[in-house]
Amino acid sequence: MKNKTFKIYALILVAQIFLYACCGNNFNIFVRSFEFSAQDEADEDATIVSNSNFFLQFTPTYQIDTASLLSKNSGLLNTAYAAIDCFDEYTVIKRIENIDITSNVPLFDIPAGDLLNNHIVVTYRFNTEDLFTTNDMILRLNGGPADSEYSLKFDTEIPAETAATFTLTITFENEEQLVMTTDTITFE
To answer: What is the DSSP letter of 85?
Structure first.
């Protein structure tokens, strides 16, 4: 009797593994908010910075909503679910169309309030080897959840004695916007 019960259990287990071998949980995601601040690599005080130590830090926060959970809806035995390696799928439901970076003062012969994106080099905060543009950053943000912090640096020095704030605006495909402005930074 034990042998027969074990065989039935094993058959159900194997059948479930084969039926759900390419399964995963589904999640809907979007960038819900972000942090945007001026940073000084030399010290913690970013109110007065040198060009060589200055960068803007961008950290996205994703909202992740459950679309479906295989583990809750499939009826799999716990042992079958533990035996298979499923990859979660993320669907971006609110895509980012633009990321605009502006300043409250004229910089690089660009009037105050106009885009500075062409003068920005983006890297991952803790991996400065991989350089990319703000357009590439949009692609990465729309690619799914990334627990990354981004560093944004200017490719041209900002003149000494310049006091500026920087604003980062995210525009989604539905025209909704998220906006954040740094504190005033004075360059030395």
So the answer is: -
pLDDT of residue 179: 96
| Strands 185-187 vs 48-49: parallel, antiparallel or unpaired | parallel
pTM above 0.90, yes or no: no
> In sequence order, what E strands does the chain have?
26-40, 48-49, 54-68, 89-92, 96-103, 120-124, 127-132, 150-154, 163-164, 166-172, 177-181, 185-187
Write the burial class of residue 149 (CB in 10 Å: 0-12 exposed, 13-18 middle, 19+ buried).
middle
Residues 99, 33: Cα–Cα separation, whole Å: 13
Through-space distance between the first and last CA atoms of the chain, rounded to whole angstroms: 84
Give the pLDDT confidence score for residue 10 in this predicted structure.
60
Could you tell me the two tokens for 113?
């309030």
The three-state secondary structure class of 67 is: strand
Interior/surface letters 36-47, b for 16+ CB within 10 angstroms, e for the rest: bbbbbeeeeebe
Mean pLDDT for each 10-residue chunk of the chain (188 residues)?
A: 68 54 68 89 86 91 72 49 59 88 96 95 80 88 78 93 96 94 94
